[in-house]
Known about the structure:
The chain is of the alpha/beta class and 322 residues long. It has a single domain, classed as Arginase, Chain A, CATH 3.40.800.10. The chain contains 10 helices and 8 strands. The protein has an 8-stranded parallel β-sheet, sandwiched between helices. Helix 4 runs parallel beside helix 5, helix 5 packs parallel to helix 6 and helix 9 runs parallel beside helix 10. The longest helix is centred in the C-terminal third of the chain and has 19 residues. The two termini are 22 Å apart.
Amino acid sequence: xxxxxxxxxxxxxxxxxxxxxxxxxxxxxxxxxxxxxxxxxxxxxxxxxxxxxxxxxxxxxxxxxxxxxxxxxxxxxxxxxxxxxxxxxxxxxxxxxxxxxxxxxxxxxxxxxxxxxxxxxxxxxxxxxxxxxxxxxxxxxxxxxxxxxxxxxxxxxxxxxxxxxxxxxxxxxxxxxxxxxxxxxxxxxxxxxxxxxxxxxxxxxxxxxxxxxxxxxxxxxxxxxxxxxxxxxxxxxxxxxxxxxxxxxxxxxxxxxxxxxxxxxxxxxxxxxxxxxxxxxxxxxxxxxxxxxxxxxxxxxxxxxxxxxxxxxxxxxxxxxx
Length: 322
């Protein structure tokens, strides 16, 4: 969209005619769709759909991630004026059709019905041929998302950025807990542990169920390039799902989260690792656990918006020029 259109084109979340292109709308005005993309449920010709799942009733400590999708969208309005930095000129907003599918509707008082609703929500989007990037919400939402993806792709390679492994034993499949979602995903056969990896871990786990992990200290000592190279060797050419818990970042960079742990990744380390993962076969991803009430600066939502942009780049990188 040309800069001269700025005087007449407002609320591009509704008025944008072309699904491709950067934006010229004032960052401080207008409806805050993700990256100023069009709000739509029509995924015809859409390459990637961003959706929000504002669910946080599975947390073990501080709630508030239900406000994450809204805060991430607002923070993202600073980004769609130029191609993302560090991607060798790759401009996914201009080259591909990306839309904001809006938030999933659910009954907050019917917690037991939420997992099936999430799985159906994502499955409906995948059935229309679009990949997804999801804005959470707490980390439980990744379990039903993985069910929808595994139904299409089979057992997935999962790259998990996190302070916690979320592999604590929980054999009650009906329990809704953000700290045991990965245990259930592995036990349910949704995850190929031999081609999956966790990054940023800095809390104890008795049994990783065969999943490799790279703790935060290793990231600090070995560097982002080393980590990305190791991760790419592990996942190979398998279809990859990336789940990024914002508490993978140190609380100095992302204080607005439910279970912060010191010693985490710096934002620049996370950015470098994500960018160096270019070339993996990423089929979907999410950013979770952004809890705005615990961050008066908005820095956590800003970090979440940047992570979501990087996920969009990774999901579309291999398709550029097609």
